[in-house]
């Protein structure tokens, strides 16, 4: 953790903020403050330099054009690569997840990714839209993932990463696995404010960033009710 | 009208009446659907011979359509789809029901603008705004702007009334540059009504550079796209017309956003030759629009209904709501969009300091959002519970589409 306060960077909200992506920054900041940590949230637009010294970087979803542009600017900027080399946490969602990989498709063209995660994305035959749920990699010690996905990509995992979860509802990477992680980098197709439904995942990112192994509990009455309701909805849809 | 169209039109009217009698909504969709089955060109046949205005955009189209119909009414009878049935079936039904009228003002779902332009050959098209709305099934904003632009290029003779404050709309209304001198640029009348929501237009749709903003002005940092000089401008509680004359706008509808809708309506009417001075007083005849802004008294509570379907319209609803107990209701059924992520695009902080109640199918999504936003709230199971949880006096209700319809049904389909 850098100096006095936890620094969270929301990367390129002008390009990569399609639907409620701000939520992840708000949720992390709130959960940190509830534990008495001072927090600073920086919104860094795509015409600004990306600071390399923050603790957590959040990359949201976006349309094809902005995704391609965002990846090009992040590669040219180099700040995110330096931050990762120094041990910063990165959380990528949807388009932001894809662009962390080796390459992705946008507007019918293959674009180079940041090569921070060993994943490769291409186009699926159909768009994946709906509830997404999965059992998370046991090493992360998290309850099941709950989210909503809306993407046309299919993502193939290389040996350098582990899947975040095994899909129990929805599509995720390919219908079998969902998301990917290595070290302190984690990506998911659970789009937008993914942390709203996954408070334990938010706390994992905070633990990674701070090195604190156990965070004091906070009141999660509403997120837990939301999770239970979504779990019931997914079960009911399955029949 | 060809015989087939006459039959289709008559069957369409009957079906709509049956649907209403059966208590199945306003009947405008089913009536139009049956009519179009009998004569696929029915909409074009019904449109022929009328001077038509189309009103489209993400937000404000139902209200603006109602206001524009009132303004054009200075000239004569106006057909309009005033129940918000804004796809071709709704247009067909509205025109069939109205019989022969010299004018029509039609609200058009933004996805259907190209198709309805083709079928109705309108005199004028008004483009209000484009912002994120139901992205799990709707087109993304830039793609929508592209579709509008392509449709307008195919109709160079239509007059366009467009929002100078929305970069996506300005780009859609400005055709791509051409060296073909036979193609004349369209006639665009620009209006400015102010815009609270900017989060879908930071990236230039023409060149991908950043859009810069300062005060009312905006411009692209990488290409010539910039805010055009508006001809109609909202100023205080009135509208400046292109001649520089200011008209006070007295409405029965709340909020600055509706003054903007009134300005657009006057600009549309002016394209038919209506002078704003003749039309402005007629705007006050519009009270509520398909239940929006309706006020109802129940158990000593004066309830007002505000519809808010997407982030931009929530910001406008907060501006309209009085400082009074407020019920928020959220569903995520098919017409609403299945995804509730947009709740995090709305800053609910303006609701701090008042009693806030929440309900609806997706109240828990809203609960998590309000919790993160430090807005205290109380969850209630039903609308009746909400009424009983607040003291007598004003109760503001802000709801998204089907949640709004549910509450409207509890209030006996108030209009």
Automatic annotation (TrEMBL), chain A:
Domain CobB/CobQ-like glutamine amidotransferase stretches: 7-198
Superkingdom as given in the UniProt entry: Bacteria
Keyword Ligase part of the UniProt annotation: yes
GO terms, molecular function: carbon-nitrogen ligase activity on lipid II; glutaminase activity; transferase activity
PROSITE patterns, per the entry: GATASE_COBBQ
GO biological process: cell wall organization; cobalamin biosynthetic process; peptidoglycan biosynthetic process; regulation of cell shape
Pathway membership: Cell wall biogenesis; peptidoglycan biosynthesis
Positions of transmembrane segments: none
Keywords, ordered alphabetically: Cell shape, Cell wall biogenesis/degradation, Glutamine amidotransferase, Hydrolase, Ligase, Peptidoglycan synthesis, Transferase
CDD domains linked to this entry: GATase1_CobQ
Signal peptide range in chain numbering: none
Statement: the UniProt record of this protein carries the keyword Transferase: yes
Substrates-to-products reaction catalysed: L-glutamine + H2O = L-glutamate + NH4(+); beta-D-GlcNAc-(1->4)-Mur2Ac(oyl-L-Ala-gamma-D-Glu-L-Lys-D-Ala-D-Ala)-di-trans,octa-cis-undecaprenyl diphosphate + L-glutamine + ATP + H2O = beta-D-GlcNAc-(1->4)-Mur2Ac(oyl-L-Ala-D-isoglutaminyl-L-Lys-D-Ala-D-Ala)-di-trans,octa-cis-undecaprenyl diphosphate + L-glutamate + ADP + phosphate + H(+)
Residues the record marks as active site: 94, 191
E.C. no: 6.3.5.13, 3.5.1.2
Chain residues that bind substrate: 127
PANTHER family linked: DETHIOBIOTIN SYNTHETASE, LIPID II ISOGLUTAMINYL SYNTHASE (GLUTAMINE-HYDROLYZING) SUBUNIT GATD
Subunit and partners: Forms a heterodimer with MurT.
Family in the record: Belongs to the CobB/CobQ family. GatD subfamily.
Protein task: The lipid II isoglutaminyl synthase complex catalyzes the formation of alpha-D-isoglutamine in the cell wall lipid II stem peptide. The GatD subunit catalyzes the hydrolysis of glutamine to glutamate and ammonia. The resulting ammonia molecule is channeled to the active site of MurT.
Official protein name in the record: Lipid II isoglutaminyl synthase (glutamine-hydrolyzing) subunit GatD
Native species: Micromonospora globbae
Gene assigned in the entry: gatD
Automatic annotation (TrEMBL), chain B:
BP terms from Gene Ontology: cell wall organization; peptidoglycan biosynthetic process; regulation of cell shape
Keyword Cell wall biogenesis/degradation: yes
Gene3D superfamilies: Mur-like, catalytic domain
Domain Mur ligase central, residue spans: 55-167
Function recorded in the entry: The lipid II isoglutaminyl synthase complex catalyzes the formation of alpha-D-isoglutamine in the cell wall lipid II stem peptide. The MurT subunit catalyzes the ATP-dependent amidation of D-glutamate residue of lipid II, converting it to an isoglutamine residue.
Membership in a protein family: Belongs to the MurCDEF family. MurT subfamily.
Name by which UniProt lists this protein: Lipid II isoglutaminyl synthase (glutamine-hydrolyzing) subunit MurT
Species for this entry: Micromonospora globbae
Origin organism lineage: Bacteria, Bacillati, Actinomycetota, Actinomycetes, Micromonosporales
